Every structure is written in structure tokens, then in C-alpha cells.
What does this fold into?
Amino acid sequence: MTAPATPVRRVDALVVGAGLSGLYMLHRFRGLGLDTVVLEAGSDIGGTWFWNRYPGARCDVESMEYSYSFSPELEQDWDWTEKYPTQPEILRYIHHVADRFGLHDGVRLETRVASAHYRDAEGRWTVTTEAGDRYDTEQLVMATGCLSTSKLPEIPGVERFAGRTFHTAHWPHEEVDFTGRRVAVIGTGSSGIQAIPLIAEQAADLTVFQRTANFSMPANNAPLSEQAQAERKRGYREHREAARTSGFGIPVPEATRSALEVDPTERHAQYESVWGRNLVGMLTSYTDSIVDPAANETAAEFVREKIRGIVDDPETAETLCPRDHPFGTKRPCLDSGYYATFNRETVHLVDLKKTPLTEITEHGVRTSEAEYAVDDIVFATGFDAMTGSLAAIDIRGRAGRPLADKWADGPVTHLGLQVAGFPNLYMITGPGSPSVLSNMMVSIEQHVDFVADTVAHAHTRGDTVVESTEEAEQGWTDHVREVGDYTLYPQADSWYMGSNVPGKPRVFMAYIGGVGAYRAHCEQLAADGYPGFAFSAR
It folds into this structure.
């Protein structure tokens, strides 16, 4: 006897992902009166701040910047404890927001989406979960995050290792104790740089395997005083507006001069004044820092000087000095004692450029030169960024065309929001938008608001289908590439370029034209009646 077919739940809107973008999208859609459901693979809300709970996990944007601005009341009633918030504090904040706005009941947890297929005749999407549940929706929003699909290094033998293994993006909920153990950390991106100092405090012996030396700056984290919070809260409205019109979503003074036209002493003093202040200070000190190799080198060498001044052993210091990419073209990191950690006698650095990884063995990690016996391996090996979480779902648009086929040579989008041939499908901070080159909270809110306003505009017209045109998509994709090519970003092999994933097309996936310029462009499109978008009724 055949089992009965699973009933299909019909909704107005379906959102994939219950992180900061998915929850705000739920709030906005509910405000439009849309019956909305959010499907979340995790066992709790929080998105990246649910999954990433490794030692030292902390946001690299200040807490009072990395927070919602849509509700002035919310801004005033939440108090942060530190300059840079830890993962637990951000997760508490997310739960506070969900409680305050009654969002929990709109989220279905432990529900991973397997496919989303557009039905041309009805102008609607069929979304199927891995458990076989089906949803019929008009609007489909992918709030799946830019750094959600983790990856392991491309070396054999992981399954043979007899000890414990951890990935920074899938850390256990219970505390992990490294006391007295021999630990290997593979990867020195942001998560590795944050975790390594704390693991070193416990481990009997720590070996760090570095493929690419990264630029990192001190976070200089500290408790937030009541006075500092009260002062920011008094000026929050003006500060938020400055963030929305800035280059990176963080208000900083605008550069007016080239790094090469100022006296070296003055330039050094400028770098010293922004060192350890925030993530973008070094990049925004001069007009040509990210476009001129010689100007960029002045900032890069300043950071190298700092590394040499911190690390006692000259050879180790030199290995930690980045030389294979311009400063800022891989996301700069903020750390709490990262470089000083290598002054510990129990911490060792292995340069994988000189002795590449060859395999994981039963007892540890083997390079081309030696085998390192360890009890635990921590993989801080990053993500299939920007497109990985979308590629993990079987998304098919008009005439059943897979998104994977359309993006075979790299992502093409209109504004990083829509893809031609995939009506009513929206991406929050997708490829082709400022996203990872910005304070993500500023970009998330702007994208969610644009999606909600576009859907509301369509319904006011009596339309149910919104789709970017091929011409608008190609024009925007060309613009993203042209602006990117004007900078130094394409010179680096980074996850911005997809270079960390074998076989992935090498394309600069973010928009470097600036948060403010991008927002102004979107606002102008809306004011002009959404040219580049086709509206229709079904």
C-alpha cells in the first residue's frame, strides 16, 4: 500500500534561514500581512551566531554598530557589555529581538531545505525539505548567509584520524577542554586567529599550520561603560544615517589625500592613530589604499613592522608577515593576542607554503617534511563563501533551469538581490552586493527593506510576480566586475574570489562601490518605478 502524499502547506512567503536577516525578513513580511514561515536547519535561531561558537568567537564590528537600527526603542533598551561582542552575547541579543517582536512562532527549526522549484504556470515556488515536507509559496527569500557552508582542507585521511576533530563552524555546544593535550590548528583566517590564543592557554602543545599569513590588528576589546553607551544612544539616529551613507557601513572620516603624497613620518602617525581602532581605519586613511599597489604597501609594511615588534623569534615573525596579497584584499582580522601567542614555548608554526600538507594520518598531521603527532585537530578552514549555501540547494527557475547551470561561470545577479529567470526569488546580501565588504547589519537591513518594499509595490499594482530583466542583470554584473577590477582585490587568492574552493570560478563576488553608493542606487530605482524589474500578475 502506498504511503499518502505529504500535504503541501501554502504560504505567502517562505524564508530560508533564521539568522539576523531571516528574522528581520519575517518581521517585515508580517508587517505587510503576509503569511510567512522561516525554515532553519539548526536547532535554534541565530544563523552564523548559532553555529560558530568556537573559543574566542567574536564579531569584528563593534557591538553598537553590529545591531538592528529599525527600532529606536530596541536600540535604547538593549545594553551591550563589551566593545566587540562575543558569540554568546550576540545570540542572547538575537533571542531578545525574537522575543520582543514575537518571531519564534514563525520559525520551523531543524528543517533543512533540499530544493526550490519554480512553477511557471502558477508563478509560485515549491520548496521541499530533506524530510520530505513541501511548501507552496509566492515569495521565496534566501537568507542563508554569506559564510554558512563550511569546508575541510583538500587532503586525504581525515576519517582515519583516531583523535578528536573539530571544525570552527560546527563547534560542540558543550565546552571543549584542551588541557594537557597536543592540538593542531589548521587554518589562520579569522576563526583560527580568534581561537588560537585561547586554545594555546590550555593545550600542552599547539602546532599551527599556516597556508597563508593574514593581516590582523589588535581588537583592544574592553568593557563598554554606561557613559559610552548613553552617549551613543543619544546620537544613534545621526550615527546610523552616517553608517548607511558610508563606504563600509561604519562611519569613519573620509580620506582626502593619497598615501604617497604625505611625508612618511606623518603617514606613520596616521596609521598609528587608527591601529587597533576598528576594522576599516587602515583601509580608509588614504584615497588610494585599495587601488594603488605602492600606496597599499605603505599600510602593509606598517602591519609587518608591528608583527616584528611583537613576535620574539625573527624567523617566526617573518613567516607570520603576509607578502602574497595586498593589505585588505583578504578580510583583515581583529585579534586578542594572536601574534604574541607565538612567543609561547608550547606554540609552534608550520609554514605550509614551504612544506605543504599531504595527509591526515591515524596519529596526526603529515606535511611533505614531517608527521606531527597530536591528540586533537581543529579545522579553521573556512567556507564556500557567498554562493555555497545557495549551491547546496537544488534551485530551479523558469523552465526548470538550475541556478547551478546559470552560475557555472560565476554568479550573475541584479544588485545581488535577484537572478533573471528566477521570479520572486530574493537573496539577502547575495553575490554582487556590498555584503561581506561591509558592516553586515547595515547591508542586511537595507536588503530586507528593499525586498519588502518591492513586494509591497508589486501588490499595490495588483502584481504577484517580480523578476529582474536579463539586461539589468548583465549591466549590474558588468558594473560589479569593472569596479572590482579597478581595485587590488582581484590580485588576492581569497574567498572573496572563490579561490579557496577547488574548481570554483574565480570571480570577485562582492560589490566594492560602497554601501552608501549602493543604497543610493537602490533608492533611485525604487523612486523611478523599479526599472530593470518586470512586474506581472498570475
Observations:
- The mean pLDDT is 96.
- DSSP finds 16 helices and 20 strands in the chain.
- The first strand starts at residue 8 and ends at 16.
- The CA atoms of residues 463 and 537 lie 4 Å apart.
